[in-house]
Amino acid sequence: MPFTESQGLIYYSFETFNHAGVLNAIFTRYGGCSKEPFQSLNTGGTVGDDPAAVVENHLRIFRAINRPFESRFDVWQVHGDDVAIADQPRLQGEPHSKADVIITDHPEVTMMMRFADCVPVLLFDKVKNIAGIAHAGWQGTMLRVAEKAVLAMVEEFGCSANDIIAGIGPSIGPDVYEVGDEVIQRTRQVFPAVWRDLLLTRNGITTLNLWLANEFTLAGCGIRSIEHANISTYENTQDWYSHRGENGKTGRFAAIIAARQVDG
After folding, report:
1. Taking a C-beta distance cutoff of 8 angstroms, is the pair 89, 109 a contact?
2. Class assignment of domain 3-172+224-257?
3. Which residues does the chain have with pLDDT short of 70?
4. Among 96, 97, 120, 177, which has the highest number of CB atoms less than 10 A from its own CB?
């Protein structure tokens, strides 16, 4: 089963990553201490939640995955395509780097990003033991942030696309993500060969398939193993935070990945 319960927290993980022996966890909103409307495992520190509750939620997550909280590396996500190379954990109190991709070859680093409809893209090179994560909302998707993540793995660590597995996590679903003219035009420009597969218009409403857009981007980089969670945050707000589904007043759920621990 893709869901695991640990110390009262429930998280999703990709089977292909589990088979590769790599830690990966995308946490639902259960098991935290935040009060409404952030109930309960909110990890977003800029949404209006009690800061003490947010810190406690982070601590609970790291206890649930049996990793030191001091191993955390997170960033200030800005809907761009900049890449942060995590050579070591981010020290408590150290300013966040502005980035929407994190990559590491250090197993002692636990990478974390926050989501509430945008697409978590997890990456792992099974041969070189390089892990990465990308934050792909519509803006990041149009910037091909998933491709930037793969290219950074190749250029920084000599990875081969054939060895990289990818996971497309819970995020707003293709049938409910309504978009306007700006996004429609950008989609046609960025994905000229496949935009008709990505945009669906019914009854005058156009929706964008972010899942498929990121799959096309990854496949275009040579990634052959792409696993989908196929979970729509918008349609499952009892389990996940959704910015659209909760009219902007909601929390952020955490996605975690780390390189595989090496014995000896």
Report:
1. yes
2. alpha beta
3. 1, 263-264
4. 120
